[in-house]
Automatic annotation (TrEMBL):
Signal peptide: none annotated. Residues 572-694 form the Helicase XPB/Ssl2 N-terminal domain. Residues 1-13 have a biased composition (Basic and acidic residues). Residues 1-24, 509-531, 770-793 are annotated as: Disordered. Pfam families: Helicase_C_3 (PF13625), WYL (PF13280). It comes from the Bacteria. InterPro entries: WYL_dom (IPR026881), XPB/Ssl2_N (IPR032830). Residues 796-858 form the WYL domain. This is Uncharacterized protein.
Amino acid sequence: MSTEEHPTPDRTPDPAPQGTAPRSLAEALRARDDASLSALLRTRPDLITPVPTDLTQLATRAGTRASVVRALERLDRFALQTAEALAVASDPAARDELLALLAGDDNDPAVTAAFPHALGTLREQALVWGPDDRLRLVRTARELLAPSPQHPSPTGLGPTVAEATAGMSPGRIQEIVAEAGLPTTHDSVSAVASLTALFTDRSRMSALLDTAPAEAVDVLSRLVWGPPYGQVTADPARHLRWLIDRGLLLPTAPGTVVLPREVALHLRAGRAHRVTEPVAPAVEAARTHRPQVVDSAAAGQAYTALATVEELLKDWHEGGPAVLRAGGLSVRDLKRTAVALDVAEPIAAFWVELAYAAGLLASDGEADERYAATPAYDEWLERPAAERWATLTSAWLAATRTAGLIGGRDTKDRTLSALGPGLDRSAAPEVRHRVLALLATLPEGAAATPDSVLAHLQWERPLRGDRSAAEDLRARLARWTLSESELLGVTGRGALSAQGRALLGLPSASARESGARAPSGPGDKLPAHKHHRPAVEAPLSETPRSPAEQAAAVAHAARLLAPLLPEPLDHVLLQADLTAVAPGPLERPLADTLGVLADVESKGGATVYRFTPGSVRRALDAGRSASDLHAFLAAHSRTPVPQPLAYLIDDVARRHGHLRIGAASAYVRCDDDALLSEILADKRSQGLRLRRLAPTVLAALADPAALLEGLRSMGFAPAAESAEGDVLITRAHAHRTPPRSAPVPVPDGPPVPDATLLGAAVRAIRAGDLASTTPRKDTQAPAPGNSELPRTSSAETLATMQAAVMTGEAVWIGYVNAEGAASQRVIAPIRVEGGFVTAYDHTADEVRTYPLHRVTGVAELADDQP
């Protein structure tokens, strides 16, 4: 159900047993059924960590400060306003009184419609208890909603007339009653009641204010919405004296007056809040595109995302940047990565963090610790493109590490670095899901305005008090989600794509009706999508999906994306300017070989590769021969191999390996002594410190790698050789980390329990409550200071147990376990033998065996108990 919709009845009625109102929250919980208790534990999972022993302990835990704070922070704005109104109502308050504080004198229909849902939410979460005529707010919630001890009203209302006049002399009260035009009474109580009745009577109060000076009305208007306190001098002005004499301002301390609550509510037209917000702000559409345009744009972004992650890890193929001592990536290395990916630094940080979250990137853990791809990356590369995208997207949705924080400062004023500590924000997954869910409320193809999304999120989680930092974080998380979802292809042109809806478990008409493949070349076209109805307004269920359901949603999203991704190509187009054009993604063997033989010159819809002497030499160094390269190009080119390219390969191959370099420190040998003489005569070789050892051998003081680089820079094409004189084939060495698992998200509190855990917890709480509240027959009175556990002798314990086996009745026992912890239990004995009693334990809801010597005592249950 959408947050804008509200059912008419309360979700969790709180009936009182036998027609009487519960006297405590524990009694109110005891009157609930199992479904209502399960709903409470589902919405407040911290209450079953660990499982309470009985309902009294559950009620106590539900009233603790930490638990109530968490519950209040998860209320939407109107539910919070309902709790605030109950905090300023009488205690206990009637349902109609609470509704009047929210709807006002004009009985706002929107408030009236939303009120049952809000009150039901507060009851379900055990923040409010009691029947409709005696509603009570949990005391801890009342304290937490107060802005400060000096101003306890969360809505800016002052104390009631009765509270403000509690310390006033009877004579002064009678003077106020007389000035207000009321008859004097014989006691202060009736006088205060008469004054209160005047202030709560709309017609008489309006008549009184019609006679007030204009300056007095202006003073009231400044105090009406709070704070309700003001300062006055010992000799107040005439208009202030008029207000004080009639009790419209009451003194609370020397020089301080307060606006009574009844007067403020009259001036507010009965409302507790200046603006009551029963309905969430609507998510507005900024623009609308055809669904097929959105899906195509999102698929293009998805393909770019895969290519970017591959390029990142290819750049770190032989070992990436070093790990900082404090952990993370240095600013310089992040800049280098951004240049290599041709993106801005914040975008590069996002891709680095995404690869890390997906388990494709980690530190190698060696002495000279560096970042590198994990073995999972090689497995990831072998999977279909749509499945690779699903891996990235599911990791992004669940990750608590937040790339947008990189470059900022932590609480100790230290810079937050990519892949470093301090980037986890437990609210990130929830915000991502909510942003996508809000986009799903719009018709397919519609992009939302960011401001309307932020306004809706703020209504759903209206953080209270001085929480500007947390509120700003949620807003920034929402904005980052909008941009990151576009980068990943979850959205296209700002609108949720078909695969994005599938990730949320929503059906998509456009996805069902389109089974076309995305264009793989300039001439291909996608079929038009049909028009379809808007998406439903309930984007996500409040019940979290199981891992199996989430995996099914991700797999479905991948299936929807697969036809929209371009098919890998097995060919390129060779051109006369020593370039090759790949009109789409290439099959992996072709892409890998071409990446060695040529340099990438430009990317985009088509990738342009350029052949250079250096790139051809790189392929020859990798063990390819000239004939291999000619055959490769001829087999994978849709155009004839240009003559300049063939000449380039032959020329580099002819000179490749003519010079041989080995370790002396290093030497150069060549059968052509004229060529060695040419090298010695070249002034550029002076830094290599060469000298002739033989007509065909030169020795150098430089190491072999420096000698290779130096001669190549002079235009020669030397080849390295082994100690046996064989040519060394140099291939890129793939550096991989040991097996690494993806980082575990930091949870935002206890996880929401599943149905199995909820059922077991409710049974355990019920059984424990039965053991602690069931009446028992009188036993020997315990000595003063002893525990309340039953105390019987060993013979009495054995006899009572044997009798219970024969009659099939349940008994109450005291039991001390091996650790010395005492407890009380209700059991139904089944068998007594060998010093043990086997019984069905109602507390644990299972059959257990207890040593009789650990049973401190036994008592029969009262006759009126089952």
